[in-house]
Write a structure and sequence with these properties.
The protein is an alpha/beta fold and 396 residues long. 47% of the residues lie in helices and 14% in strands. Among the domains are: 143 residues, NAD(P)-binding Rossmann-like Domain (Rossmann fold); 130 residues, Rna Polymerase Sigma Factor, Chain: A (Orthogonal Bundle). The strands form two sheets. It has a seven-stranded parallel β-sheet with strand order 4-3-2-1-5-6-7, with helices on both faces.
């Protein structure tokens, strides 16, 4: 029986994880949950899974939950996240928070000797070298839950170490894959949130629309699998059934396929190194009939190129990239900037930080770079302005 602590239990990954737990009650149990503001859903989860510890963002909500569930310890804030991540009974922590907020509790879980089922790519983007070094020192596993990195983890089991030529991350292309650059300039929030194949939270859905999600995944893959940026490729695959591939030095391509349901990579990560018989729908290749692939267009989707640049420059730049993106995406979702301004803001902030970039040596340094980048991105967002009143495009 593996005992789980779930960071982000009310999000899409968290709810899918709990669906897996329900399907395998003799293999997995829940000892701690952390959620944000969806208190009604969290109440249902507490009723169903009876965790010993729960964390929420708001202290007032924590107080109300504590009164409603007197047998459960309820905590709040950043300290609450860390307490969930370090719960003494947890074997594995499912890191499914959105954004860089997941870094500190995930690193704390690693230091506490917990294996990590990682769905929070920003943790490795912001401080990948620090996180992987801590995992190596503590002897814990980081098992990727993102479908692309999970696919690579599986495909890497085929060949011996040192026999990989490159990793190939697949991308759906998002809702604007076939749009012209001119049409993308006028994209609305609702259009950007209309992902063609995956049901995800708003932030990651916008990241898919700009394709920076694939740039962040390149950085994540670099840290997980220790390959340089130039040996990590991206290819568009709109059906989202081939989740990624590994090319070996003999020319063999190994792909991992399944239906586009996050319960598959979650089950793999939780069960590893075992495989468990899945009760979920399997892939019918005859029904699919056709799989297509295309090269990504970095002119229409410049955020992908910006992420590669940040990884090549290293140091604090990936943390700066991530922070600027989080601020820009929030501004777009709040309809304060136009869609093209997301990449433009990221480019501005990266340009501004380049002159004083330093090798990343501590968590405090990563947090400071993140904070400064957020300040710079907020200033840039104000400069670009709302879509209807003077938004402008910066060529990146």
């Amino acid at each position: 029986m593996k005992r789980l602590a779930i960071l982000g239990s009310t999000g899409s990954i968290g709810t899918s994880t709990l669906s897996v737990v329900e399907a395998f009650p003799d293999r997995f149990s829940v000892v701690a949950l952390a959620a944000g503001g969806n208190i009604d859903l969290l109440r249902e989860q507490i009723d169903s899974f009876r965790p010993r510890l729960v964390s929420v963002a708001d202290p007032r909500a924590a107080r109300d939950l504590g009164q409603a569930f007197p047998a459960v310890k309820v905590v709040s804030g950043e300290d609450g996240l860390t307490e969930v991540a370090c719960h003494p009974e947890a074997d594995t922590v499912v890191a499914a928070l959105v954004g860089s907020v997941g870094l500190i509790p995930t690193l704390a879980a690693i230091e506490a000797g917990k294996d990590i089922a990682l769905a929070n790519k920003e943790t490795l983007v912001v401080a990948g070298d620090l996180v992987t070094a801590a995992a190596h020192r503590r002897g814990v596993a980081i098992l990727p839950v993102d479908s692309e990195h999970n696919a690579i983890h599986q495909a890497l089991r085929v060949g011996p170490e040192g026999s990989v030529r490159r990793l190939i991350l697949t991308a759906s292309g998002g809702p604007f894959r076939t749009w012209t650059r001119e049409r993308i300039r006028a994209a609305t929030v609702d259009q950007a949130l209309a992902h063609p194949t995956w049901k995800m939270g708003p932030k990651i859905t916008i990241d898919s629309a700009t394709m920076i999600n694939k740039g962040l995944e390149i950085i994540e893959a670099h840290h997980l699998f220790r390959l340089p940026e130039e040996r990590i490729s991206v290819i568009l695959h709109p059906q989202s059934l081939v989740h990624s591939l590994v090319e070996y030095i003999d020319g063999t391509l190994i792909a991992q396929l399944s239906v586009n349901d996050m319960r598959f990579p979650i089950l793999y990560a939780l069960a590893w190194p075992e495989r468990l018989p899945s009760p979920f729908e399997t892939l019918d290749l005859a029904a699919v009939a056709t799989l297509t692939f295309e090269e990504p267009d970095e002119e229409r989707f410049p955020a992908l190129k910006l992420a590669r640049t940040a990884l090549r420059e290293g140091g604090e730049m990936p943390a700066v990239l991530n922070a600027a993106n989080e601020v820009a995406v929030a501004a777009f979702l709040e309809r304060r900037i136009a869609f093209p301004a997301i990449a433009a803001i990221i480019a501005d902030v990266l340009d501004g930080h380049a002159a004083h970039n330093h090798p990343l040596e501590s968590l405090e340094q990563a947090v400071a770079a993140d904070r400064e980048a957020r300040r710079a991105a907020a200033e840039a967002a104000a400069k670009y302005g709302p879509p209807a009143t003077g938004s402008r495009e910066r060529k990146v």
